[in-house]
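Figure 2 data, in text form.
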Amino acid sequence: MDHHASRRDFLRTSCCSAALFAMGWSLTGCDSSGMEEETEDPPSPESGITISGNTITLDLTGTQANVLAQAGGFLFIQAAKTVAINVNGQTIRAFTSVCTHQQCDVNAFQNDAMVCPCHGSRFNTSGQVVQGPASAPLTEYAVSRDGNTVVITKS
């Protein structure tokens, strides 16, 4: 019996260590052009991110939301489980950050794809899977833009 208990402890410790390593890698393993830092919970007023129920309002002059003012800009809004991307300099799209594979947070944008750090699933700027193991697209949210104000409505 003691042999099984120590094996269970070993596996539990190994899995936790691997998860922490993976999260640490995903937060520090990317340069700033590929990934925006995770927002605090809740975002600070100067960030330009306001969350109210199912509505996220972004002020593109804010200290964190400003990345979306440029083509290819990507923002992971951890507190709202949402990612937003500026596709072409004009169009901003928003999706759930919850990966359809095992519900990890898609939190990076690299080589024209949104990336889940847990198992390597990749999604294009339309939310479609371009590399598994995920097999279903990310849920897209409604986005409206008026100048420097972007409103994301989660449904």
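Caption note: The CA atoms of residues 106 and 116 lie 4 Å apart.
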